[in-house]
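Key result, reporting period 2: structure in, sequence out.
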């Protein structure tokens, strides 16, 4: 074996550290730390949420501009991606109507996915034959009501009046106009849909999206109780337009249930963001026994055990007999114990320094990694 072939192979599989480090910045930090005696491979990976569009553009897709409603219904220009000159488009929900547009704070009752339906219409008129929706980074709990509204499908209350946007409107939904459904299904009959999600959450059932994510979107305990009841009624309405729609299916609760409207309306494929990007970047085919994978994210919590980036990376390492080291901004002791006990994990590094405030740890993350972890990282090699 030549000296080149005998190099230890390292793979950088990081998510962004929100508010602190971009994926590119943390990759660059590790490339500076790691010795020249190792082969370093980096990957443009996203979990299906915010950053997915930029990952696609880095992979050679083109940016296309559309006009659509933002999170609270105001019209704005937004980006989607097109695969070369092919009629294949990708929508990042976070870019159209995600939490990042809520500049005045969370608004769980009125946040809407109206802009997604409007974006679908814009892409259909451009001749789209395949549309991918990257559903992470949402702010809404509207069950995909806004998608139907953006497509021109009338959702009515008990007085046969149009319901308003968001969860505030969804709770009054009593009927969906079936003539509108038939019209839309005919218009979109030749378009293939893929939902790229970052969670296994369902619309209803034990692991439903309200139970898992509505609190972080601003819903209190009582609000979550009534929202779960609302979603049960909404699931029944969706089943009324598609008997095969299963509201307990993993992924139907992604983005506050937005993927449910796609499942009910169209023949929809589901995949998670890590699987999508690991295939597109070649990561899934690049891991060999004894390789070392570095992964991490800003905050590792209970939801991170789902379909984000860290856990799938650890599982990929284990599958191929490789090792993994995890870097996180912050983590609870129980979640740290959970990671440490994963067979492939050799080390967990936590940036949050108890001698510093959280804000200081975030702002000095790069410095902390270099000063506190550089020597330990080299020891893993």
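The corresponding designed sequence is given below.
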């Amino acid at each position: 074996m030549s000296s080149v072939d005998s190099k230890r192979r390292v793979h950088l599989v990081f998510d962004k550290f929100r508010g602190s480090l971009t994926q590119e910045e943390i990759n660059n930090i590790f490339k500076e730390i790691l010795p020249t005696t190792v082969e370093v491979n980096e990957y443009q990976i996203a979990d299906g949420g915010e950053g997915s569009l930029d990952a696609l553009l880095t992979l050679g897709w083109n940016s296309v501009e559309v006009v659509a409603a933002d999170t609270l219904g105001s019209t704005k220009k937004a980006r989607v991606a097109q695969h070369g000159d092919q009629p294949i488009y990708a929508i990042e929900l976070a870019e159209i109507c995600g939490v990042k547009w809520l500049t005045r704070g969370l608004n769980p009752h009125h946040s809407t996915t109206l802009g997604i339906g409007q974006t679908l219409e814009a892409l259909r008129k451009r001749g789209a034959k395949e549309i991918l929706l990257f559903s992470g980074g949402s702010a809404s709990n509207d069950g995909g009501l806004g998608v139907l509204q953006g497509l021109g499908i009338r959702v009515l209350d008990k007085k046969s009046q149009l319901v308003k946007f968001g969860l505030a409107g969804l709770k009054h939904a009593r009927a969906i106009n079936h003539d509108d459904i038939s019209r839309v299904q005919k218009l979109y009959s030749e378009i293939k849909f893929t939902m790229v999600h970052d969670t296994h959450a369902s619309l209803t059932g034990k692991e439903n999206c309200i139970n898992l994510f509505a609190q972080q979107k601003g819903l209190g305990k009582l609000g979550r109780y009534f929202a779960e009841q609302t979603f049960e009624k909404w699931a029944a309405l969706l089943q009324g337009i598609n008997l095969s729609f299963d509201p307990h299916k993993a992924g139907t609760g992604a983005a506050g249930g937005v993927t449910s409207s796609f499942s009910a309306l169209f023949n929809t494929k589901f995949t998670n963001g890590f699987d999508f990007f690991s295939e597109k970047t070649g990561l899934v085919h690049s891991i060999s026994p004894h390789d070392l994978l570095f992964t991490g994210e800003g905050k590792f919590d209970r939801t991170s055990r789902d379909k984000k980036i860290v856990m799938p990376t650890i599982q990929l390492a284990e599958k191929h007999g490789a090792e993994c080291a995890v870097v996180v901004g912050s983590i609870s002791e129980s979640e740290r114990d959970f990671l440490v006990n994963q067979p492939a994990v050799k080390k967990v590094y936590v940036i949050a320094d108890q001698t510093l405030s959280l804000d200081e740890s975030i702002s000095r993350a790069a410095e902390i990694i270099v000063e506190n972890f550089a020597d330990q990282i080299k020891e893993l090699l």
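The first strand starts at residue 8 and ends at 14. Residues 221-241 form the longest helix (21 residues). This case is discussed further under Risks and Mitigation.
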